Amino acid sequence: MNMVATLTRPGLATLVDGVRRITAAGRSKRETAFAVADFLRAHLPGLDILTEQERAGKAETYHSFPLHAETGFSIVAVVWRPGQGTVIHDHLSWCAFGVLSGNEHETLYRDMGDHLVEIGRADNRPGEVSGFAPPGDIHSVINTNDEVGVSIHIYGADVSRTGSSVRRVYDLPVL
Asked: Within a domain: residue 172?
């Protein structure tokens, strides 16, 4: 599904055009993730890519707003109220993300078969952008700031078809 009507959001048409060019280049998944992250870093939109109502988030859990999806990639805004976060999970595809507000505290894990091992932590603050590709993308994220967090995620999958970028949720002990 190509959500053309959403291209009127400030900065979105630029992101879609740039990501299309990058994904058409035929790079590896990891190289694509890093190239998309570099492009996102140079073209990170402002908070006005979402309406004020969308930026408020939801009381129950973090909320994802698909902004654009087509064969090969999707652009999703994620809104996190203070303290909201994800379960431990990995992804269907490569991903690049940029933080617009809040603080996305990310914990990285390695799957050891019968348990997980924490292998790193990062605080992703406004203006920071990163990219990754499976394998090695097992993580959890929580907004540790006292303000609502907003981030832009670009996935190498059509979330309008898959329903989510999450491949697997990990319910293993962390040792």
From this structure: no
